[in-house]
Amino acid sequence: MSSQIHHIAIQDDWEMSRGFGEYVVSTRGIHLDDAGFIHATTGGRVAEVVERRFGDLDLPLLDIVIDVEALEAAGVRVDWVDGAPRILGELPMSAEVIAAETPIVR
Can you give the residue range of the structural domain that contains 62? Predict the structure, then answer.
């Protein structure tokens, strides 16, 4: 398991969540409440996820790098299913948890 995981976010979704301090989008078009978890990936699979899930979308995307230890210290568990991390709750948008927000250039 990695000490950092990644979530691909549509920039508008990410920015709109700032005022709440928590991010609740599971993946493109799906809310955390509907999926039960927030999709995440490893650093080595970011490009694959961007192409597979967002390749047809012409909107700005962000690679959100998440510190797993800080996330779990905030009370949000990460499960690993078939080599992919799942964030089991709302993602705190704190500086401790969010290690980086990097625009994805396609």
Answer: 4-103
